[in-house]
Design goal:
Blueprint lengths: L2 H8 L40 E7 L2 H8 L5 E9 L8 H4 L7 E8 L6 H12 L6 E3 L2 E10 L4 H17 L9 E2 L5 E3 L7 H4 L4 H17 L14
Parallel strand pairs: 5-6
Antiparallel strand pairs: 1-3, 1-5, 2-3, 2-7, 4-5
Length: 233
């Protein structure tokens, strides 16, 4: 969460926690609108029991919190990618000039949930793909909507799905989520890990992130895991 959004959210309890399941993009300072994205047309069979993927879509608290509740996910770590190790700390990344994105590294069992399935969840409830450098109340390149495929297969699936979303007509603005080259991932500081689970009553979490969990459970009940998989155990 940015310093600006912290000030905005401090008095924003009246915005409420409603999640609108509609066919338009959100322009609110509250949670992004949940939109049921289409089933991916391009997938790939599971060839291993463990896979890794990296997603950036606004403040990493909510991104991590959502994926921690997805069946088949075995781990989700908040961190930074896209910049150097020297600047990979919250105080520097928050200025938006380091090249980093707040991101989440997800490990999962592709026999249970595939990369294409995670993309569908990401675009349905995590991030608004029509906003490039910002999500919810957080603005800046460090909050960009971006995918970091770890191999050619993931890149092919991601490219195909972005094309599919662009043709779907579900959003009234162009899809601008970027596919970026996979770079080193730096885990965030300990107090940022499992933040949603440990701070469910924080105003920012209540307004921006708990609605994402509600949407995940409503849209994908078969993928919902009641007890999250946590970094701290």
């Amino acid at each position: 969460m940015s310093r600006l959004s912290a000030n905005i959210i401090a008095g924003a309890g009246a915005l409420g926690l409603a999640v609108a399941l509609v066919g338009g993009a959100s322009t609110s300072l509250a949670a992004e609108t949940a939109i049921p994205a289409p089933a991916p047309l391009v997938t790939a069979p599971a060839t291993q029991t463990r896979e890794t993927a990296v997603f950036a879509g606004g403040c990493f608290w909510g991104v991590q919190g959502v994926f921690q509740h997805v069946k088949g996910v075995t781990g989700a770590v908040s961190g930074y990618t896209g910049g150097s190790a020297a600047d990979a700390r919250y105080e520097r990344v928050s200025y938006g000039d380091t090249g980093h994105a707040e991101a989440v590294r997800v490990t999962f069992d592709p026999r249970v949930v595939g990369y294409a399935d995670l993309l569908r969840i990401y675009f349905s409830v995590v991030a608004d793909p029509t906003r490039a450098d910002g999500q919810g109340p957080d603005i800046g390149p460090q909050y960009r909507s971006a995918l970091f495929p770890v191999d050619a297969r993931q890149k092919r699936i991601a490219e195909a799905y972005l094309t599919q979303l662009g043709k779907s007509g579900l959003w009234d603005r162009p899809i601008v989520t970027r596919i970026e080259r996979a770079q080193a991932f730096y885990p965030a500081e300990g107090h940022h890990q499992d933040y949603l689970t440990r701070n469910p009553n924080a105003p920012y979490i209540r307004i921006n992130d708990l609605p994402k969990l509600t949407a995940l459970k409503q849209l994908y009940p078969l993928s919902w895991r009641e007890r999250p998989v946590l970094v701290r155990g």
